[in-house]
Amino acid sequence: MTASKETIVVVVSGKAFPVEAAVNAPTQSVVARALELSGNTGQPIQNWELRDADGHEIDLHKKVGDFPNGTKLFLNQKVGVGG
User: Fold this and answer.
1) Where are the domains of the chain?
2) What is the DSSP letter of 82?
3) DSSP secondary-structure letter at 64?
4) CA dist 76 → 2, 24, 42, 46 (Å)
5) In contact, 40 and 11? CB cutoff 8 Å
6) What is the DSSP secondary-structure string of 4-44?
7) How far apart are CA 22 and CA 20, in angstroms?
8) CA distance 48 to 6
9) Does residue 78 surpass a pLDDT of 80?
């Protein structure tokens, strides 16, 4: 039996936010939820970049199910964005 949801841990400003999402959902939905949970709602998703532990940028259209359950990803504002 396959799980229909997984948890991705998104680190925003040094704090970890576990986000549960459907395995077929785009990673962008996890980013949106993590920004909401962290209170970072002033900038659009396009101003943020999601990276894995090795520093590789993650495509926001990639499916949640493409990552192992419990994967930790890092969300940071893109360089040159914000004040």
Assistant:
1) 5-68
2) -
3) G
4) 31, 24, 13, 11
5) no
6) SEEEEEEEETTEEEEEEEETTSBHHHHHHHHHHHHT--SS-
7) 7
8) 22
9) yes
Looking at this protein, which amino acid is placed at residue 11?
V
Fold of 5-68: Ubiquitin-like (UB roll) (3.10.20)
Matching residue, tokens 């999402």: 21
Interior angle at CA 37, CA 57 and CA 7, nearest 5: 60
H or E element, residue 76: strand 72-77
Stated pTM of the model: 0.90
pLDDT of residue 33: 97
Nearest to 13 by CA among 28, 27, 43: 43
